[in-house]
Amino acid sequence: MRFWKMNGAGNDFIILNNLEERLSPKAFPQLAQTLCRRHMSIGADGLMVVEAADQGGDFKMLFFNSDGSVGEMCGNGARCICRYGFENGLAGEAQAVETTAGMVFGRRIDQRLYRVQLNDPTTIRLDCPVEVEGVRYACSYVELGNPGLPHAVVPYHNLSSADEGELRELGRKIRWSPVFPRGANVNFYELTGEDRFFLRTFERGVEDFTYACGTGSGSVVAVLTLQGKVSGHQVRGDMTGGTLVVDAERVHSHITELLLTGPTNVVCKGEITDEELSFSGEA
Q: Is 82 annotated in the active site?
């Protein structure tokens, strides 16, 4: 099997082209679990599989978290796979990518910089507090696309100096809170300047912090724009792996468009020879 490994601001992915590999869809969860395991295999936050489009797009993106679960969409993954599509002749400078959460449109800005229009917010609840061990945390809730990709948005004072272990445990408990029946990605953020914030995202399916989260950045900016705390234009989110830029179009009390811009990096291309894989790869 041939693969690419890419990252977007440190959020890293393995990409397989199933138009060529013709693997059985039943194999994808195990592939994700095996290949994404750090130290033991290639290592990544998720696996992306390119499939043929069937809804008018250029191609389809199937996304699997590192634990093998299906992800509705991934913003940084979408930016990376847009570059993959362009460089492999699957799409032009503008890309239409089918995802589980709906169509995502991308555009090449330059060789490494790509912008995608995230799935529109289908649910935004600005006041959705969550209680953990008797402590009440301010929280907003956002779903992007349909079925919605769930995000909790939680302000956190002195986030950059927070204890990593304590923050991880809090993220895990909020992620599994009964307030969110489908679970949620947990975005801890702190405003650090005009139209600028720092973000740490505890991602479901990875079950840990990732270096960056594109849909998380979009969800935070959607909330802050509606709250009047940012302008919604060229809002910069700083994360462990780099900086992403989000533009949010507000019409009255609704966010009608979310654009995510950031870097992509082709880390390596090669052949998978992992001897721990034990599935029949034929479709």
A: no
